[in-house]
């Protein structure tokens, strides 16, 4: 490709690699956990040499999404956690240190897979609940669909959380050739069982569109998903382009982990933090094994590995975003500023930091372009192609981020049009970043600065936590994030002209918003009515008209508005 040159192995290197990587089974890799690089030298590669010699010109794309990993919870951000693989891959690649996601699961996943803001898909409120007749709108062209158009084999392993109430919503109907994982937002790591409420419980492990009962062997999901990835890599031809979306359940609650990983963290007195730390280390080991499998089966030299968390950590469940403010579920930096890096032999500037402004919507146009695909204007993307920013250190084409506008979230009691200078009702929860500036309105969410080990062992008392003294009349905040990344100094009263500019930007975005999709629960979703399994319950020939009506919130009825935003041409 013109944008980057493929690394070609010379004859001596090929002989070395073939001698190094031979015939060690995937099962062995995953059974014994970490393999040292020395141990790898004893393996026997079972690929034909010509499969390595002639890779596709299109890169293999491996996107790894961690769940609820806090900004602090990685070794290279100063954590006490042991994450040697993540630290090494990040150090050898490009660390993304001005990278943003959404504050919860569904919003981040929907924006990754569509390249569009929540306000343009109707998913701007909360997450998709298991009992809701709701999913990622079917009129959105997904990232795997675009990659399939240019010859990619597309596979998903892990957590979906983009809705499943009818068959057309399932991953294999949204562009993935194969799917192995869970449909819900959380569940038991061993039994793959989830209760949404008392009596509403079911099994949630699927292969394709069916319950994967035969895989119900009590294997910890982080290990099981890694084994599945290795199986996919072993069976695919590396001369053909591969897209692998690996969305780990870890490290979302419930806090469960094999006991051997707890041995590393006896010094952590808080049991929640200790278990969470062990889960992160197990996750790091899984990523090591995925990397080894990529090398073993001939993918690595033509691969791009992207690592991202889906949102900030939850302190009550062991996570830490220190020194950032806030937590998962909030629009403070601790909820939306994520751990992220790119690791690839194809990067031009390896071992660097990227401080350009990036957002999870940017992966869609970036990866489609790298895959030699087309970005039609009618996709109405909100993301930008940021490969040159990451790989070459060029300025980011992104100048702003709409963090969200949620018109049905609890309104700030003291918010008003007057507080928003007649431009915006500050009772509405919203957040936007423009250049160095960040504006929040409404109720941004839990806002304390929470250092690690803040909570006692019993989780009943807090210590060393900085509480916020609220002005009861406040509904607008302004921060210079470049100068004050920890959001300690509110500047809204000093720079009213900046506040007005950002409020005007919010109002402009809001004109392109579609109605919120947040329907009430459907009793037909009960797994006990569907063989004890969480899965599609709505039949396309039943009540189509009533379902369409139900999909729109009563507070946000109306016809879907067309966004006027056009995809900017990429440099």
Automatic annotation (TrEMBL):
InterPro entries: Alkaline_phosphatase_core_sf, ARSB, Sulfatase_CS, Sulfatase_N. SUPFAM superfamilies: Alkaline phosphatase-like. CDD domains: 4-S (cd16029). Keywords: Calcium, Glycoprotein, Hydrolase, Membrane, Metal-binding, Transmembrane, Transmembrane helix. Residues 59-371 form the Sulfatase N-terminal domain. Pfam families: Sulfatase. It comes from the Eukaryota. Its cofactor is Ca(2+). PANTHER family: ARYLSULFATASE, ARYLSULFATASE J. This is ARSJ Arylsulfatase. The lineage of its organism: Eukaryota, Metazoa, Chordata, Craniata, Vertebrata.
């Amino acid at each position: 490709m013109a944008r980057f040159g493929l690394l070609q192995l010379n004859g001596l290197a090929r002989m070395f690699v073939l001698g190094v990587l031979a015939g060690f089974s995937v099962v062995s890799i995953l059974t014994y956990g970490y393999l040292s690089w020395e141990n790898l030298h004893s393996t026997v590669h079972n690929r034909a040499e010509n499969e390595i010699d002639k890779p596709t010109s299109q890169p293999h794309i491996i996107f790894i999404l961690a769940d609820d990993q806090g900004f602090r919870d990685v070794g290279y951000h100063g954590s006490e956690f042991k994450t040697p693989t993540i630290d090494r891959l990040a150090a050898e690649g490009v660390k993304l240190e001005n990278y943003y996601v959404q504050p919860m699961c569904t919003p981040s996943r929907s924006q990754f897979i569509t390249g569009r803001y929540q306000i343009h898909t109707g998913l701007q409120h909360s997450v998709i609940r298991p009992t809701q007749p709701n999913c990622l709108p079917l009129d959105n062209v997904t990232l795997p669909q675009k990659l399939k158009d240019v010859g990619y084999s597309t596979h998903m392993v892990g957590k979906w959380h983009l809705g499943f109430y009818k068959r057309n919503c399932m991953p294999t109907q949204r562009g993935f050739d194969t799917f192995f994982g869970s449909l819900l937002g959380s569940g038991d790591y061993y039994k793959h069982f989830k209760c949404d409420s008392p009596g509403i419980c079911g099994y949630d492990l699927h292969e394709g569109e069916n319950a994967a009962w035969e895989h119900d062997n009590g294997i910890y999901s982080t290990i099981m998903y890694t084994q599945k990835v290795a199986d996919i890599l072993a069976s695919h031809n590396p001369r053909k382009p591969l897209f692998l979306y690996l969305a780990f359940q870890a490290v979302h609650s419930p806090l469960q982990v094999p006991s051997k990983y707890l041995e590393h963290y006896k010094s952590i007195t808080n049991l929640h933090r200790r278990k969470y730390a062990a889960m992160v280390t197990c996750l790091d080991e899984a990523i090591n094994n995925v990397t080894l499998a990529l090398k073993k089966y001939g993918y690595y030299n033509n691969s791009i590995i992207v690592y991202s968390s889906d949102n900030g950590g939850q302190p009550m469940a062991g996570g830490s975003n220190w020194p950032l403010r806030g937590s998962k579920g909030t629009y403070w930096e601790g909820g939306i500023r994520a751990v992220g890096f790119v690791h690839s032999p194809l990067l031009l500037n390896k071992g660097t930091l990227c401080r350009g402004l990036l957002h999870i919507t940017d992966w869609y146009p970036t990866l489609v372009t790298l895959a030699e695909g087309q970005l039609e204007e009618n996709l109405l993307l909100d993301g930008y192609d940021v490969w040159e920013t990451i790989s070459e250190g060029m300025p980011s084409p992104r100048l702003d981020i709409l963090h969200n506008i949620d018109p049905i979230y609890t309104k700030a009691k003291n918010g008003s049009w007057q507080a928003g200078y007649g431009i915006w009702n500050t009772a509405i929860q919203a957040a936007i970043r423009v250049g160095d500036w960040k504006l929040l309105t409404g109720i941004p969410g839990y806002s304390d600065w929470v250092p690690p080990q803040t909570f006692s062992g019993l989780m009943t008392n807090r210590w060393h936590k900085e509480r916020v003294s609220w002005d009861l009349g406040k509904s607008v905040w302004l921060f210079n994030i470049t100068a004050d990344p920890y959001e300690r100094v509110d500047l809204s009263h000093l720079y009213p002209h900046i506040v007005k500019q950002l409020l005007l930007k919010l109002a402009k975005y809001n004109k392109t918003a579609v109605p919120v999709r947040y329907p009430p629960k459907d009793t037909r979703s009960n797994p006990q009515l569907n063989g004890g399994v969480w899965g599609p319950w709505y039949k396309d020939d039943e009540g189509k008209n009533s379902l369409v009506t139900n999909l729109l919130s009563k507070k946000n009825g109306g016809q879907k508005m067309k966004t006027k935003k056009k995809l900017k041409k990429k440099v």
